[in-house]
Amino acid sequence: MMGQSVAPLARLFVFRGALSRNVRLAAGCGTALLALAIWSAAPAFGWTNPVFLPSPLDVVEALWIMVTQNGLLTDAGISIARVWGAFLLSAVMAIPIGIMMSSYRIVGSSLEPLIDFIRYLPVPALVPLSIIWFGIGEETKIFLLWLGTFFQLVLLVAEDMKRVPQEYFEIAYTLGAKPRAALTSVALRSMLPSLVDNLRITLGWCWTYLIIAEIVAADNGLGFVIWTARRYMETSQVMAGVFVIGIIGLVSDQAFRLAHRMMFRYL
After folding, report:
1. By mean pLDDT, which of 9-18, 114-123, 151-160 is the weakest?
2. Of 153, 148, 150, 262, the residue nearest 201 (C-alpha)
3. Which sequence spans correspond to the domains of the chain?
4. 60-263 has which fold?
């Protein structure tokens, strides 16, 4: 009897084993509920100071006030527009450049050292330069978001292109394909599943730079709301703003996952 009761549990921890959709959903919900319970207990039992860690109910109350009275949804829309504008600009630039870097050795040898150098620079350290170059308008915010996204994405695209087997190109050339046809019909089709995954990952990175971008002489956006609340020690409002960013990020990530499953059912 004991062996029979342990076996189903043991199957959950099989190395690289498969799980049903219901089990995955239950595990995710269970972890979220456990985290919520610990968070609720911490201020309730005096483990933490509510000034530094307000209860979930306080955060929900602050969120409701911010939505109904302070125009939080407008700020969220502005932040979404900024993030997606910078992300799309990064993708439009990074995809062709990354493909060129892997397709032509001279391009990769020329650009990779510079890209590696810039991508290790901390974005906050470049805020003063961005203000000098672009002023305090929207250009600076988009530039900072682009800066944190483009140089990461271009190398991921280059790696995706590099992983396309050389045999694919040789077969295409044997069948009479021209280089351009081999690129569009062979390389892009082969690298597209991993490219979509990398776009999903870099969109998340773009959101992580939102606070930095929106403290640059901003008067709207989620980053501005969070930074202003921090200044007045409104911790519940800070956490409400962070919660909204997390929800937006989760929805975006799940949308990418769904699109990936629908586009590449054969995987």
Report:
1. 9-18
2. 153
3. 60-263
4. MetI-like fold (1.10.3720)
